[in-house]
Amino acid sequence: MPPSPTAQRVQDLLTARGFPCKVVEFSESTRTSQEAAERAGCTLGQITKSMIFKGKTTHKPILVLTSGANRVDERRIGQYAGEPIGRADADFVRGVTGFAIGGVPPLGHVKQMETYVDEDLMQYSTIWAAAGTPNAIFELTPSQLQQMSGGKVAQVK
Question: Does the pLDDT of residue 9 top 80, yes or no?
Answer without folding.
Answer: yes
